[in-house]
Specification:
The chain has 14 helices and five strands. The protein has 355 residues and is an alpha/beta fold. It folds into three domains: 105 residues, 2-Layer Sandwich (Nucleotidyltransferase, domain 5), CATH 3.30.420; 88 residues; 143 residues, no CATH class. Helix 5 crosses helix 9 and helix 11 packs across helix 13. The protein is globular, with a radius of gyration of 25 Å.
Amino acid sequence: MTKNTTCETIGCDIGDKTSEICVLRRDGSKVEATIRTTQEGVTKFFKGREAAHVVIEVGAHSRWMSQVIEECGHRVTVADPRRLKMISASNMKTDRRDAELLARMGRADEDLLAPVKHRNNELQADLAVAKARDLLVATRTKIVNHVRGVMKSFGDRLPQCTSAAFAQKTPDGVPVLLKAALAPLYEVLEKVDEQIKHYNQAIEQIAERYPDTRVVSQPKGVGTLTALVFILTIGDKDLFPRSRTVGAYMGLRPRKDQSGDGDPQLRITKAGDAFVRRLLVGCANHILGPFGEDSDLRRWGLALAERGGKNAKKRAKVAVARKLAVLMHRLWITGEVYEPVGYHAKQVAKKAKAA
């Protein structure tokens, strides 16, 4: 158990404009304060103070605030909000009480907070490019679906095509009656398509700065985007002592609620970054789909899907995504050449020989 009673413990409940502070002194007394949630406000409070253990919760401001506080000479623990049900479920919840609870939990045992490590500024900026592209792709999909829905309500249908080709292949099918409503959307689609192409080029350039992207993207169905986002999200390949834990980190592990003889089958935790999890599930969908190439992973997933039962195919897809995350991390660590068929048997034999 990790305890800290040799210095002050400071809990900080971060708000968008102001943040509440609770300082637990060595003698157990406390001091409360309110600071502005700005770099100047945070620096003014923490700079010049005796080195302390500061506990904050993950949020929109936690990354830059933790950096500023550490630059002021303090040790920062960034708490996983999933471990803070005591705070969110309290029937006497206030910002000041939240700050005090953070401080007391940090002083009692910071391992209870499941500390989160923020990625550095460069990784965060590169990841922002991929997420910006994802936003534009989602926007394009919504516009395309809206246009098709409007046409359908008038008894017409536009030709089938990909979202990327929609703006070029379908405008002639829009009747004169709907031109005023839909023509501006086609203009927006053209601009969105142009920006998506710009982001695609940027992602390829970013991937060149991360050579491990080529290693991670060896399994068929894993593209440059997924491999790059996977690497940027984890940040450090040595973060996990065992590759098997990566599936849980991505939120692809089923929740557990075991008690006595009861051990129901539950949904996945959905912890971690939703973006990379969605990309992994998309890759799993391709691997299990009609165009997926033969591999140990595909065979395993198809066998799982054939077991039957409710939602068997959906569970198989998630299971393949989880196994794919483990495989990608393993390739990242070892730098091995991936063999689609026989890779698993090769790894088992290697472990047996090492033992």
